[in-house]
Structures are given as structure tokens and as C-alpha cells.
Sequence to fold (332 residues):
Amino acid sequence: MAYYVFGIIRGNGGENWPHAELNGKSYRVLPIETNQMAAVVADVNETSFDPSRKNARTHQKITSEAHTRETFLPMSFGTVLQEKKDVKKLLTTLRPQAEKMFPKLENRMEVGLRLTADETYLRELASRSPVLKNIKAKQQKKGQLHFGERLEAGEASAAFMKELHENIQQSFFKPLSKIADSVKSNDLMHEKMVMNASFLVHEENEEAFDEEVNRLHDEWKEKLSFTYTGPWPPFNFVDIQMKAGR
Amino acid sequence: MAIQKSTDSSSLADVIDRILDKGIVIDLYARISLVGIELITIEARVVIASVDTWLRYAEAVGLLRDEVQGEIEDGSSGGREQLNFA
Fold:
């Protein structure tokens, strides 16, 4: 018997948890509670789980369920502890920090907003950049650029995109962070992505935040594609790193 | 509303990106041998970065940005206003 840990919940999250599908098996989910705080775990009989499509979705599903029940500190994927006393040890170790964190996270959700620049918009912007225009003209005239010029072209394109990222992030962060409690900028997942941000939003402000995203969408929809996701447990706003002490 | 958030439409990449190394992270060594060792927290915080912090950071990185703009402007004039639509 081992315990796959989904995270730490305030209180115990109650009963009747959905089952967790891990490595093709269906496991019972239950809270292991000590004094007003519980680890949400599945009692599993193996210790290694790959982030396959199904396993990852299960982690997302159970952490989301916990987050809708009570204030919740999500665990990263794949943490398995061998014994119940290890789970309790984890709770004891985390208690002081968790008690400080719960009030900052209560009734709050994480939402994600990713923006990808449309091809036509990028081309139009690039056509207005004198540097890129020069390079393009040179290329058309010579047929092919030599090595140094190709490096220059790459560098100029990268600089162009970086400036675009900064401008767009500022245009979005300013209005949205008036409504959100916190903002986090994440790594961009591909070249045309211009923003990948997470926001921590209080339930009371959820509607206002949605409306602001829609206003921005109306303003930018010809230029950018929007991916708006959530509500999520606050994965991007809980930062707890633990290791073995020596 | 024209655009509504959802969790269903998220791609696997998006889910993985969120759950893999964020939240509470226990070092692999500690995870497999927790019995008999002491578990310590080396970092614990709620990330509360306001946009002010972020914008100040962006401006600090603006050191970089000026260089970049300098390069852009070397070969031309007026490139900056054209790109600045913020």
C-alpha cells in the first residue's frame, strides 16, 4: 500500500471523492487528516506513475475537485509516499507554512490566458519594421543572404518578437491585474505565442475578470488568438520546494 | 460572452505544463526514501506579484530592451514608434 498525494486541503474536504484513474486502475480517494488539515490521497499499490494523458488528466481532475471543496495547495504530479506516517510527516512539516498560505488563497482561483499572434498580423507588423524591411529587400535583391546576414536576420526577428511580447504583456497585464490578486508570466510554448500568463482571481471578481478578458478579446481578436482556461487550483501561485534534510 | 474560460478545452500540453513541477514539489530522493529521514521545506511562498512588480521587472530588463532597440534603430530611424503600440 502506498499513497499518491494530490495536495493539502484545509479541513478535510468531506466525503464521497471521485475515484482516481491511475495507470489504468481505479483507486479510492480519501483525505488523511491531522488537526484541521488533510492530505488528499489515493491509496495505490504501485509507486511509479508517468505523466501519460490519462494520469495527467486524473491529477488535474482530483486537484480541481479538491479546489472546489476547500482552500487547497496542489501537489505536483507523481508524488507517492510509502506509508501513512510519511503522509502525516508531510502534513506536520507543512503545517506552519500552510496555515499562513491558506488565507491568501481562500476563495481564489487560477485562470490562464495564452495569446498567439496571427500570421497576417505578424506580417503586417513586420512590414512596418524598417530593419526587417531592409533585410527582406536585401534578400529579394540577392536571392540568398550570406551566413552573417542570415544571423543578423534571425537576431533582428528575435528582437522584433521580444519587443512585441513586452508590448502585448503590458497591454494585457495593466487592466487585468487591477482585477486579479496576482499575475504570473510563464514560459512561451512556441515562437508565435506572445503571452502565457496565469492570474489569481478572487471569486468575487471572477465575473469582472471574465468581462475584462472579453473586452480585450473584442479589441484584439483580429490580431491574436486567445486561449482562456480555468478555473484551476493555484498551481502557479503555490511555490513549495521540499527535500530531504541531512 | 464571446469568450469563456473552460478546463475542457485545455490541451494535454497545457495540463502537463501546469501540473508537472508546480505547486508543492518534493525532491525525488526524499520522495522514495521518506521513512527515517527528515523532510525539510526549503522554499514556501504564495506568489503574490502585483503588476507593479512585474512592470518594474520589465523595466529592469529594459536594460536589455534598450540594447535591442538600439540595434533596431542602428539601421534605421523611427522604428520604435511603429512597434510601440502599447
Helices of chain B lie at 12-19, 28-32, 51-74, 79-83. The CA atoms of residues 16 and 59 of chain B lie 31 Å apart.
